[in-house]
Amino acid sequence: MKKLRIGVIGIGKIGLAQIKAIKTIENSGYAELVAISTRDEVKARETCVQYRIPAYFTDYKAMLNL
Question: What pTM value is reported for the model?
Fold first, then answer.
């Protein structure tokens, strides 16, 4: 089975809720959170460290080309 690769655009309250939900289902093997996108690079970096997300982008269009 192929894993669904997920990227989250925006990491406000709803984006963080989505990140937490995706990280919960990652262990099932169905999906993986591969990147986030936000204009605030410092917040993006901190969020990636906190949730062990492999990549971040400050331009969502660049993330979509991943």
Answer: 0.89
